[in-house]
Specification:
Layout: E1 5-9, H1 12-20, H2 28-38, E2 41-51, E3 56-63, E4 66-73, E5 77-80, H3 87-98, E6 102-104, H4 112-120, E7 132-134, H5 139-147, E8 149-154, E9 164-168, E10 172-180, E11 186-194, H6 200-208, E12 211-215, E13 221-222, E14 225-235, E15 241-250, E16 265-267, H7 269-276, H8 282-303, E17 309-316, E18 322-328, H9 334-338, H10 342-361
Parallel strand pairs: 1-2, 1-5, 5-6
Antiparallel strand pairs: 2-3, 3-4, 7-12, 8-9, 8-12, 9-10, 10-11, 13-14, 14-15, 14-17, 15-16, 17-18
Helix pairs in contact: 2-10
The protein binds adenosine-5'-diphosphate and magnesium ion.
The site of magnesium ion has 3 residues, from loops.
């Protein structure tokens, strides 16, 4: 009998959510619908529950209105939606791959510096990449001298956490950063840094975790707030990369970052182009951003194992030139839902399942 099971790897908290019907932003119903459409059965599982020696796993499979726990042979195709921070989990995933399992998005958290170095090897991309360096003593001041304004960002973090902006002022620099209040909530603040010296807490942060210093990109603005685009680039049933959708994200008033988790708001591209790039047509911007995004992903997927599904953060200058900000290996996908782009939101789930199904049917 042909194998028609597709594994979906979740972290523990997501799997607990699945059983309680509370998976936050992850739309479980779409996995099931996509499975029906492509003739495969989603088997939700955790890497901790895989017995690599026996190649068996405990998985949760839809059964009536709920999920039934089953012991099954490890599915031959697995869509990874988990992020692993422990080397043991990576080692287990690698052992499954070594035993012939197709795991796509096997690694889905890449250091920003590693990606920058890979992309910089392509001369056609260099004009679209912010000047970037690991933040070391001296590099911040040197970059401020060269660029006038920079961001400091953790090499391996997400949703806008830990990122800061430095700009020149008449007396030195100003900094925009977020810090916990006494009550524990995070709050964005702005401060003067007379003489252009970094405060102690920033120096401590730079020592604690690897940081990058990067030219502040001249992002186009919407109502005087910078915006960027989330571009979903996925392989579909044809196994080729294609653009699933593009949505805009505008920074809130209190900061420069557009992450929805930091208060950024989602907007359709039509609205942003009309307001911020009136001399460009939407079709032109879509074409340019799509070609650029495909170029980036083709480049990255030469070097990174089994990428199938990424969310790029792409900026635009006010002339409509695309700029690379970052590549997310586990796209959270829900900004499409927030923008009311339901078909695209659904497609972000259907494409990876179609891709996985293509390995089972060949
Ligand atoms: N070089 C830059 N210039 C201007 N804005 C930036 C720059 N880098 C990041 N940002 C802003 O900060 C946000 C978060 O940065 P990003 O590199 O995507 O890290 P994260 O992984 O935290 O999302 C971006 O979406 C963008 O709004
Ligand atoms: Mg980002």
């Amino acid at each position: 009998m042909a194998d028609n099971r597709i594994g979906i790897l979740f972290n523990s908290n997501m799997l607990r959510g699945l059983l309680r019907n509370k998976t936050g932003h992850e739309a479980i119903a779409f996995y099931e619908e996509a499975g029906r459409r492509h003739g495969v059965i989603p088997c939700f599982m955790r890497v901790e529950d895989v017995n690599v020696r026996k190649m068996e796993a405990v998985a949760y499979i839809r059964d009536g209105t709920g999920y039934a726990r089953r012991r099954i042979p490890v599915p031959s195709v697995i869509h990874n939606r988990a992020i692993y921070f422990r080397s043991g989990a990576h080692a287990r995933v690698q052992s499954m791959v070594n035993r012939g399992t197709v795991i796509f998005n096997q690694v889905n958290r890449y250091g920003k510096w590693k990606l920058h170095v890979l992309l910089q090897q392509d001369p056609a991309l260099v004009p679209h990449l912010p000047v970037t360096a690991p933040a070391r003593k001296g590099t911040v001041a040197a970059m401020m001298d060269n660029c006038g304004a920079v961001v400091l960002k953790p090499d391996n973090n997400s949703v806008g956490r830990g990122i800061m902006k430095l700009e020149r002022s008449s007396t030195g620099w100003t900094i925009v950063y977020s810090r916990r209040t006494a009550g524990g909530a995070r709050k964005w603040r702005k401060a003067n840094l007379p003489g252009g010296r970094l405060p102690r807490f920033v120096l401590a942060q730079l020592r604690r975790t690897p940081y990058l210093v990067q030219e502040l990109l001249p992002l186009a603005r919407y109502h005087d707030r910078p915006f960027d685009l989330r571009v979903s680039v996925q392989r579909d049933g044809s196994r080729e990369w294609q653009i699933t959708g593009i949505v805009g994200r505008v920074a809130p008033q209190h900061t420069f970052v557009t992450n929805v988790a930091q208060g950024g708001t989602v907007h359709r591209l039509e609205e942003l182009v009309a307001a911020a790039l009136p001399h460009c047509s939407v079709a032109e911007v879509v074409e340019r951003v799509s070609a650029f995004s495909l170029h980036i992903v083709n480049r990255l997927s030469h070097s990174l194992s089994h990428m199938a599904d990424v969310g790029l953060d792409i900026g635009l200058t006010s002339d409509g030139k695309p700029l690379f900000i970052e590549c997310n290996g586990r796209d959270q996908r829900y900004s499409f839902r927030e923008a009311g782009l339901y078909d695209i939101w659904e497609a972000t789930y259907f494409n990876p399942i179609a891709y996985g199904a293509s390995f089972l049917q060949s």
